[in-house]
Amino acid sequence: MAVLNVLDFDAVPDATTLSTQAIQRAIDRAAPGDSVLIPAGRFLTGSLFLKSHMTLELAEGAVLLGSQQLVDYRRIETRIAGIDMPWPAAIININQCRNVKVTGAGTVDGQGAVWWHRFWGDDEKSGVLAEYSEQGLRWVVDYECERPRNVVVYQSDEVELSGFTSRESGFWNIHLCYSKHVILQNVKVSNSTGPSTDGIDIDSCQHVRVERCMVSCNDDNICVKSGRGAEAQTLARKASEIIIRDCELHKGSGITLGSETSGGIEKVIIEHNRFFGTGVGFRIKSARNRGGFIRDIIVRHLTLKDVCYPFMMQLNWFPQYSYGQKISDDRPLHWRKLSEGVEGIEGLTRLENITISHITSQLTQPQNFSRAFFIEGAAECPIKNLTFSHLHLQAQEFGKIAGVTHLRFEQVNVDAPAMTLTENDTYER
Prior knowledge:
Structural class: mainly beta
CATH architecture: 3 Solenoid
Oligomer: single chain
């Protein structure tokens, strides 16, 4: 079991010389059981593709800097926000592999600002987002403005990600898709800003464990997904047997199920996590054209401080993004996929058997906004068997609960002195 140092393959740690080919040569040379070492230094790179039975070790002080040129990220078949389509590869790609590890105290830095500015401009109101929105095409812009991810695990088995930091990704930081038996532990995600810079996305995967991770980002901190629309419902690739445990969440939108639910989500345990100033604690989001199901979910032993919405369930989330238009055949294939939602009553996501217990939500300053409950089920297909027990919540507003049958409260204590205001009924991220 050899250790292959990328410096021996002519990688240059000066942050300006593109070292993609040198690092890839080291990876390609590795025999089963070998490790490829990224030593201390700043290595500029495009897409790297790992292979089975190897370890990529990011030494302390090592930084993989993502190239800011899209040409350095090969376009490959993948899944983006629930749609199977071509898209630029990530910085680190584990595609169709088995028994792979990415470890160490180093960093993957996507240098994402160039991609964020392309999406929404310097003022967050212009760029490609404004251009498409003015044409009534808000629902396609996320898929048209290509932005690399930092780490992707795709159609792989027995993968471990541990110890390293992912920061400033152009798009999602760590994306697990169509994979099984994946462990993330002691990973840190830190994104200052940027559109759709999710921390960890678990997408149509089974047997995934996320433990002792710290996530701060500008969208969902940790999210479980299963595809968007008619194609994903037909594929029926569910997300199941997932544990998210002992993590620390800061800036972001909390631990989320959805909004891509078309393949189904079940058997998720979320426990012993700590939230500090996140927009949401535990969240479910979907839309009336997603279909699928969310069932057998256990959320327990959470501590929340200064969280705006401790519990949020929105089943008609962000209509401008969620609902596409019928289009002609001359449009790109992914546009057609986006426009083909799950029709009628089957488009309503079925939620049942959700148990939330032993939660404490605290405001360190009484003027900090918080709404204890923001739950909006669908009248035609209400949430079933929703249980809250052993809750102690400090909030300004109590909030609202609608579209639920068999709702149970056991030992729930809520301090919410202010009126519930309709102006706080929106949360789009």
